[in-house]
Write a structure and sequence with these properties.
alpha/beta, Immunoglobulin-like, 2 domains, five-stranded antiparallel beta sheet, 11 helices, globular, binds alpha-D-glucopyranose, hydrolase, alpha-L-fucosidase, Glyco_hydro_b, signal, FUC_metazoa-typ
Length: 471
């Protein structure tokens, strides 16, 4: 009996642990057929490195984006305030959100210097606060203390600033909207992330939600210039037919009814307005998930279809004071591994409520940029090779060139020699260091290459993160 009970506790705990807000990756991928989409995906795959900006009212108190509004058990909710009072307090943050130092040009410049090539910006997160001048609701940045600022229509200016730096432009949009009465209806409690009424019983209400969603995306597609990616978050808002055992195993609560926002209709409108636009309808395997989006982790193996790991630079997506930042080395190593496995990396950064980027983020971005400026040839525009990894060395290729990238572990002394035995250069060809073009001495014996790392690099370059070799 006791051990049975133990087992039960264990199983329930395991189930709870699975329930969080990270999106998993489906094993199904449906390649798009539209040649414009395919061409854009190729272009996007060349870019490798982007920035995911989470910015909204949650930056004011510096808390997790949206999620504390949701009463699922795994969420760490604040003490001392009732759920309803908390919600009121949260929605009301809009009345004090006044980012007077908002300067998207400086964000775009810092991102470019970091080696990033595309941006995804939160036009609306799950909390339903709009960072653009939507006409579908008053809950928006253009309706609070910031409304008279020349750049009040924030998303528009973010997109413009990044376009001016030649970035590809992505609009993050949350399919769930917890502020909408047609999603979370005040008549009922809101026990979880899903619509809180029975859609089958109130079809006209859900229809109103579909129209609202369509109209918002329609505005983004028509009034905000050229958009390359529509990044749709909230994968649990999905047609019931797409819920299979794999989706169930991810642990998020799944309602009895279908939460279909009518993607075919949205997609048709979006592609008419923005030919070739890429849809990232996260985890909803099918025609609107043109690339997959594993979250906070690098997949174990190479994936042949287009994909992107999204990963926050700190622990949180949005700005949280005293957050823990990843080291520059960790970011570069993840990027190298992602690229060698065929993916892109979208690094998450959360601006502060006054509109500036956190100092720590800017510092890390500079360091990342320094490495990429020197070694970018081994990253941008590359594709995978069959055998892409040998221990801590990853391989990429471009045209007829193969790159070998040796990751120097944190705290490791740069070794005198580095060896590998796959993807060896053709006999007699030269090996050079990408960072400075210098030739590297090497020998091959018994199918193993040994490259000599010059003393000046070993001794002076104490901050070595990764060495890229061109062969
Ligand atoms: C998850 C979270 C969401 C966040 C997103 C970023 O989906 O639910 O809050 O915006 O990840 O990748």
């Amino acid at each position: 009996m006791r051990s049975l009970l133990f087992l039960l506790v264990f199983v329930v705990k395991g189930m709870l642990a699975q329930q969080d807000n990270t999106h998993k990756t489906s094993s199904i991928y449906v390649p798009p057929k539209d040649p414009h989409v395919l061409a854009k995906l190729e272009q996007w795959q060349d870019l490798k490195f982007g920035i995911l900006i989470h910015w909204g009212v949650y930056a004011v108190p510096g808390i997790i984006e949206s999620w504390q509004l949701c009463s699922e058990e795994w969420i760490n909710r604040p003490d001392g305030m009732s759920y309803e009072d908390y919600k009121k307090w949260y929605w009301n943050l809009s009345s004090v959100f006044n980012p007077v130092n908002f300067n998207p040009e400086s964000w775009a410049k810092a991102s470019k210097a970091a080696g990033m090539k595309y941006v995804v910006f939160t036009t609306k997160h799950h909390d339903g606060f709009n960072m653009f001048d939507t006409q579908q609701t008053d809950y928006k940045i253009t309706n609070g203390p910031f409304k008279n600022h020349p750049k009040a229509n924030v998303a528009k200016h973010v997109f413009e600033a990044y376009r001016n730096q030649d970035f590809m432009i992505g609009a993050y949009f949350s399919k769930p909207d917890w502020h909408s009465q047609d999603f979370w209806w005040d008549k009922y409690a809101t026990p979880d992330r899903n619509a809180n009424y029975d859609i089958l019983k109130y079809p006209e209400k859900w229809k109103a939600y579909q129209d609202f969603t369509f109209n918002q995306i329609d505005e983004l597609m028509h009034d905000y210039g050229a958009i390359d990616i529509l990044w749709l978050d909230g994968g649990w808002v999905r047609p019931k037919e797409t819920v299979n055992d794999e989706v169930r195993s991810w642990g998020a609560p799944i309602p009895e009814f279908s939460q279909e926002v009518d993607m075919p209709k949205i997609a048709q409108m979006a592609r008419e307005a923005q030919p070739g636009i890429i849809f990232a309808d996260r985890t909803v395997h099918g025609p609107f998930e043109n690339y997959q989006t594993p979250e906070r982790k690098v997949p174990e193996h190479k994936i042949d279809n287009p994909w992107e790991t999204c990963m926050p630079l700190a622990n949180n997506w949005g700005y949280v004071p005293n957050d823990t930042y990843k080291s520059t080395t960790k970011v570069i190593h993840s990027l190298v591994e992602v690229v060698a496995k065929g993916g892109n990396m979208l690094l998450g950064i959360g601006p502060k409520s006054d509109g500036t980027l956190p100092y720590e983020a800017v510092t890390k971005m500079e360091e990342i940029g320094n490495w990429l400026t020197a070694n970018g040839a081994a990253i941008y525009g590359t594709r995978t090779v069959d055998h892409y990894q040998e221990d801590g060395i990853f391989f990429t290729s471009k045209d007829k060139t193969t790159y070998a990238i040796y990751l120097v572990k944190e705290g490791e002394k740069v070794p005198k020699t580095i060896s590998w035995s796959i993807n060896l250069p053709k006999k007699g060809s030269k090996l050079s260091l990408v960072a400075n073009g210098n030739k590297i001495k090497y020998s091959v014996s018994n199918g193993k290459l040994t490259a000599q790392i010059p003393a000046n690099l070993r001794n002076t370059n104490t901050a070595a993160i990764a060495f890229a070799f061109k062969q």
